[in-house]
Structures are given as structure tokens and as C-alpha cells.
Amino acid sequence: MAKLGQIKRYLSYMLSYNLNIPLRYPHEVNFQMTNRCPLRCKMCEIWKLNANPKKELSVDVMKRIMDECRDLGINYISFVGGEALVRRKDTLELVGYANSKGLHTTIVSNAYFLDEKVCEKLLDVGLNRLALSLDGAKRETHDFIRGRGNYDKVIEAAKTILKLRKKKQIKVDFTSVVMSYNFRELVDIYWLGKKIGVDQVFYQAVVLDNTFKNFDYNEEVWINGEDLEDLKSIIKKLISLKRQDDFIFNSVEYLRSIPEYFEKRGNFKFGACLAGFMNLNIDPYGNISVCGLGPNLNVRDRRISDLWTHEEFSKTRSLIKRCKRPCLMLCYEKFGIRDMFKHLIS
């Protein structure tokens, strides 16, 4: 029955996509708590944005939005950044509030602030899922990408949460950005996750620019030339592991597409992008935006139901459907008829 419900949900979003009319509310609302971040990762430009903490969305406004989400039947809330835990007090309060409303919560974190005290508070407020960024099975690889000492913080945070949790009321995942610096360690990340005892690993191909301001390829992080053959071999190993159990979150189709993504660049296409249909992203200042395309609407003085059906959002959805940017981002689902049949028979 759960699978049938999932298929019905996908069908309704696909119909919304084809009609360019939102037939249902988003599956998830994503709060981008801040653009601030203590790290300077090789593949991320978000810290270069001019953050303005005084103008970031207030806790009261976000609570009001979560009330609306509950009333509209939206059950999933995520907190990201920058680094969401730059605003530790606010994020913890919001997770606790969401939990009191019966909403499922996720925090995506680089673990910079995750000492034992904060880990205990995450459990106390009822966080459902913690997604930790791990970009290398080796300390030197991860720290080269994200910053000295961060590998130990990620591993220690994972171990602490796993030690403190009871009856698996919180899921702990590793998410790895696939790029030139680390792709040879993807299988080792799988085994490291197994060894530590996290619940799943996620792999996401590096994006052109997560600020959506510069669409040039960063050749330093892109996988090119002869390395592509090695990548294909590694992906085959991951697919083999995926078929043994569900420890790898990604679908086989997603994994298989990673080498093609790097090889084809601007000619790459992976199904219908449901950005703007399945998810609602709210930036630190209350603007709703999809992949930098707008719309220029703000949640401070509008209800989610009004924003979701607004004419400006309809224009954004049309722009998304015409988007040619190669993308394998995990934050938005991409879905096609082939995937539907696989859901039906698997």
C-alpha cells in the first residue's frame, strides 16, 4: 500500500508538471536557514554570498509557515544552509516545534558545530534525520575538500548520535559529493558508512555552482578524460552493492547516470525535473526560489497556499521546464515513465 501511495503521488506531480498547474502542495518545504558557513569547501561558493544575519527569516515566521504546512498536509521539513547550525538555537527550537506538530525533520550539516552537547539536543528536540556531509573515506581527502579537522568532526558526530540514539528514532546518513578529488573513494565511503553504522549513504554529482550565479564548469572538480573510465568502473561496483541491499539511497538509474553527466556536460538530461512542483525552497530572507529562477515572492506577508498557486510561480515553473542546465542534484526529484514502471514491478 505504501508503494501504491508513492506511485499516486508521483503521478499527480507528473500531471502537474505536464499541465504546469500545481495539483497538490509540495511534498517538502526546505528552510535555507542562512548563507553563512564556517567552511570554505572546494566545490561550494555559497559562503561568498553577502550574508545579512539581521535580515534572515525570524523563528516566529518559520513557525507560522510550519503551521500552514501541517494544515496543508505537507509533512516534511528540512533545514540547510550554508550551515544551518550557524543558527543553532533557532534551528533546534524549530526542529522541536516541528516535532510537536507531527512534522518529519531533516538537518543537513557539515558537523562543524556538532559536539556532544549539540548532538544530545538534536535528540531531545526529536530530529528525525541528520544528513552529514562526508567527501572522503580518507581524512586527508575530506579535509582537502572541506577544511582541516572536519573529517574527525563528521566521524565523531556520527558515532556520538549513533551511541546516544535509542530504537533508531533518528536516522544518520552520509552524503558525498562526487567530484575529481574523491571519486576513487566512493566505494570506500560505502564501507566506512557500514563500519560506523550509519543508516544510508547518498551520492550526489557535483553541481556547476550552488549559488546559481555562475554556470561555468569548475574544471578542478569536474571528472574528465581518462578518469571517466575509472569512474565508470567504480559506479559499476556501487550498482552491484546497491543491488545487495538499500544502504545506498540512490537509485540504480541515478548511479548509472553519473559518468554520463560528467561526460556529456551541457548535453546531459535526466528525466523530468520536478523542481517547483514537489519542493518549496525558502531562502534565508524569506524569498521562495527555484534554482535561482525566482519567483520574487516572499513568505513574510503571504501564505504558502497563495504563493504556491501564484501567477509568478507559474512563470518560474515554465522556465524550469525549459532549463538546459545539466543537473543531478538530490534536492529535487527527476522522474520519468521508465522509473514509474520500475516502481510498479520492483
Defining traits:
globular, single chain, TIM Barrel, alpha/beta, 346 residues
How are the secondary structure elements laid out?
Elements: H1 2-19, E1 28-32, H2 59-72, E2 76-80, H3 88-100, E3 104-109, H4 116-124, E4 129-133, H5 139-146, H6 150-164, E5 171-178, H7 186-196, E6 200-205, H8 227-242, H9 252-264, E7 272-273, E8 279-282, E9 287-288, E10 297-298, H10 304-308, H11 311-321, E11 334-335, H12 337-345
Parallel strand pairs: 1-2, 1-8, 2-3, 3-4, 4-5, 5-6
Antiparallel strand pairs: 7-11, 9-10
Walkthrough of the structure:
The chain has a single domain, classed as TIM Barrel. Helix content is 41%, strand content 14%. The chain has twelve helices and eleven strands. A seven-stranded parallel β-sheet has the order 6-5-4-3-2-1-8. Strands 7-11 form a two-stranded antiparallel ribbon. A two-stranded antiparallel sheet has the order 9-10. β1 (28-32), α2 and β2 form a beta-alpha-beta unit. The radius of gyration is 19 Å and the shape is globular.
Q: Tell the overall outline.
A: globular
- The number of helical segments is 12
Instruction: Determine the N-to-C terminus distance.
Output: 13 Å
Oligomer: single chain
Mean pLDDT: 91
Q: Fraction of residues in helices?
A: 40-55%
Unreliable spans:
none
Task: Please outline what is shown here.
With 346 residues, the chain is an alpha/beta fold. The protein has a single domain, classed as TIM Barrel. It has twelve helices and eleven strands.
